[in-house]
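Weekly sync notes, structure subgroup
Attendees: PM, AL, DS (notes)

Item 1: joint prediction request from the bench team. They want all two components modeled as one assembly rather than separately. Inputs as received:
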Amino acid sequence: MSAKPKLYYFNGRGKMESIRWLLAAAGVEFEEEFLESRDQYEKLLQGGSLLFQQVPMVEIDGMRMVQTRAILSYIAAKYNLYGKDLKERALIDMYVGGTDDLMGFIMMFPFLSAEDKEKQHALIVERATSRYFPVYEKVLKDHGQDFLVGNNFSWADVHLLEAILMVEEKKSDVLSGFPQLQAFKARISSIPAIKKFLEPGSQRKPVPDDKYVETVRRVLRMYYDLKAN
Amino acid sequence: MSGKPRLTYLNGRGRMESIRWLLAAAGVEFEEVYLETKEQYDKLIKDGFLLFQQVPLVEIDGMKMVQTRAIMSYIAGKYNLYGKDLKERALIDMYVEGISDLMQMILMFPFSPPDAKEKNLESIKERATNRYFPVFEKVLKQHGQDFLVGNKFSWADVQLIEAILAVEEKVPDVLSGFPQLQVFKTKMSKMPTIKKFLQPGSPRKPPPDAHYVETVLKVFKK
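Output from the run, pasted for the record:
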């Protein structure tokens, strides 16, 4: 068994992408096993490796971790990306909660009906520009530091960059009213581990396409559309 | 200004209830402000109290905390309900997140359309009995200890007892196939802080009724 963490998920972003980002940002190499068939998924289930019958699942340090938030918290703490004390941790948790909610809208997007997709697109842009981005813009402006929390690179910075890039894929000029975030994006993207992750050939996954949606639906037998918010 | 945490939410369970449970279990007294009108809510936003324009809001230790999970992680960390090391923390997080998925179904239930209620109730019962409760039954059986993680009372235990009681309100015999959970429920209910929280007059809120649903829709109306 390799010492590298091993990720079990579909060959696409979904709930695993934030985990890939965080491991990459921490400079941690990882392996991946991609779910492609229902049989593979059922085999994982029968083998008892999925605590709540769900993926993401990450084998790390002798544990079979499930639940995205639990996995991310563990990685953040292990690799010192979780602040220096309880209060910094609280700030990081709050900020990540916000970007998580925003990315949640984007994550469900490919699984919505055509009609709901249009509404959801508008919602994503509205939420990004009126609820979430202004908060981080202000945080950065108020303290004038390079990173969101405690003048130190943390999980919150990785998560925010991921969210910015995802929203930009939906509306390329979405940062036009946010000069601090533009500078933040440039700064964090140039951190060596992140720069590497943003280059072709990394384990970063592309925007979900029809093949990805079809695979998820088939493996999970999820043949209904999600309901938009 | 008192030293007690102050909770701002509607006068009902919703997303704040798990926070009330955790503070109570930790033996921490708290104050509550209830949102009853849209105007109150709009004012909170205008005054900059709500980081992402949402409640729950918990004022604690000089912070205006939002985001339910962030708040609970802070409370668990502060009051030693988060295990002794990173690995115990990981277990607690996994258990809490799983239970939270089940609680989410219960949270959304009062807001489901009338023709979907029966199906949603069935889903809650199915998930509780086939996905979530078997996990904790097995955990308790395998280590034979009183608490879920590290032989010590933690956030995971509080979250589980809350979930058991919430599901039982909807499916009274749901624990019939889970002897370990029945024992767990009894043991947790007897712990002094939890026992106190389960008594009438505590800050524990009743199951959501039509008035609660109406208030939610009114306060958060766009």
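Discussion: Chain A has two domains: 6-79+199-220, 86-190.
Action: AL to compare against the crosslinking data before next sync.
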